[in-house]
């Protein structure tokens, strides 16, 4: 596999993340209670390595900042490394419901010359809703439903289950993943029109349907250096299935096995702000 060392800074993700309150289940690290009702800010530096586009056999590297807020004295909640950026409307002890957003990179000829003749796909933002449920304190189920804006205009869904355990300063999570997309999504990233096939010359026309697009697993490890500092490392694996796996783009230029990894460094501090 080829490694594309394309670094992208996405500050708009930080804007979205700044809306995110503490996330569900007190499992990453516990902040000591503070008498005041001020806000704690958590600033994160994120580095991600993953396929340069859905189905690709090469990788891109993306770095971006993010920030979230919670009330002082409130423990930071568990969030899986591959969760979308979330804003809660309802947050009970076992249930969270709210808005979510993700970023989907584009597909460009300059990144892979084998894509000659295939349409360029711009990057997309995927706003939507999420719900998560903790049936017991160490098990979380989460579902996201989103719609693409920009590079694609399809509906996508991600379903996940996480087993979460804390061992001293370490928090370990692991769980299965399912991803689905409608026909608009699959035809954008995995379809080939007759004109594209004629120009490219290496693929045949293909019109996929919607449905299950991948199955996989995500595992992460967080180490709490102090109440202020923590580091999270994670690995993801997805196996393309169904019409996505049968795409001539994947068969000819890509790979059904999609790997990813990442590293996040977090710093939390009391802002001293007591508004809202």
Automatic annotation (TrEMBL):
- Family per similarity comment: Belongs to the MipA/OmpV family.
Per the UniProt record, the source organism is: Microvirga subterranea
Subcellular location as annotated: Cell outer membrane
> What Pfam families does its record include?
MipA
Signal peptide per UniProt: 1-24
Protein name as it appears in the record:
Outer membrane scaffolding protein for murein synthesis (MipA/OmpV family)
Sections of the chain in a coiled coil: none
Q: Which UniProt keywords apply?
A: Cell outer membrane, Membrane, Signal
Q: Does the entry feature the keyword RNA-binding, yes or no?
A: no
Question: What is the predominant subcellular site recorded for this chain?
Answer: membrane
Q: Write down any Gene Ontology CC term.
A: cell outer membrane
Specify the domain of life of the species encoding this protein.
Bacteria
């Amino acid at each position: 596999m080829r490694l594309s060392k394309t670094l992208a800074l996405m500050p708009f993700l930080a804007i979205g993340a700044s809306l995110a309150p503490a996330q569900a289940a007190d499992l990453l690290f516990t902040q000591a209670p503070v008498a005041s009702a001020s806000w704690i800010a958590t600033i994160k530096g994120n580095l991600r390595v993953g396929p340069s586009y859905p189905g690709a056999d090469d990788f891109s590297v993306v770095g971006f900042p993010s920030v979230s807020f919670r009330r002082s004295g409130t423990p930071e909640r568990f969030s899986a490394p591959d969760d979308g950026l979330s804003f809660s409307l309802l947050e009970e002890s076992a249930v969270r419901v709210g808005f979510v957003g993700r970023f989907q990179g584009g597909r460009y000829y300059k990144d892979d010359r084998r894509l000659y003749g295939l349409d360029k796909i711009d990057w997309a933002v995927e706003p939507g809703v999420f719900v998560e449920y903790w049936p017991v304190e160490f098990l979380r189920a989460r579902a996201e439903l989103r719609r693409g804006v920009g590079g694609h205009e399809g509906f996508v869904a991600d379903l996940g289950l996480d087993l979460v355990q804390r061992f001293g300063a370490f928090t370990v999570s692991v769980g299965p993943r399912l991803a689905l997309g409608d026909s608009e999504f699959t035809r954008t990233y995995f379809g080939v029109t007759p004109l594209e096939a004629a120009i490219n010359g290496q693929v045949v026309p293909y019109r996929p349907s919607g449905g299950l697009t991948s199955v996989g697993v995500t595992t992460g490890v967080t180490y709490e250096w102090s109440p202020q500092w923590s580091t999270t490392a994670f690995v993801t694996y997805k196996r393309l299935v169904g019409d996505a796996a049968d795409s001539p783009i994947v068969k000819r230029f890509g790979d059904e096995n999609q790997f990813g990894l990442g590293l996040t460094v977090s710093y939390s501090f009391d802002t001293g702000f007591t508004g809202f």
